[in-house]
Amino acid sequence: SGKRRIYVIRTKSQGTLLKYIGEINSYNITLVSENTSHDDIVLDGSEIDSIYLVVRSIKVRAEF
After folding, report:
1. What is the 3-state secondary structure (H, E, C) of 14-34?
2. Are 54 and 8 in contact, with CB atoms under 8 Å apart?
3. pLDDT tens digits, residue range 2-59?
4. CB neighbours (10 Å) of residue 3?
5. H or E stretch including 5?
6. pTM of this prediction?
């Protein structure tokens, strides 16, 4: 299972994020971006409202 899983994370201070989850300990969670030019975000666990695992994504084609 080398594939990392992506999550939607609803937070109190950062809004809704689409991130990988890095390290989790008793107090903090590290959120990792696909884009390596963005730094990891370390949040206190109390900042997290909810976490959802993305199980499928779809492409939507706009018709104009």
Report:
1. CCEEEEEEEEECCCEEEEECC
2. yes
3. 678 999 999 999 899 999 999 999 899 999 998 889 999 999 999 999 999 999 888 8
4. 5
5. none
6. 0.77
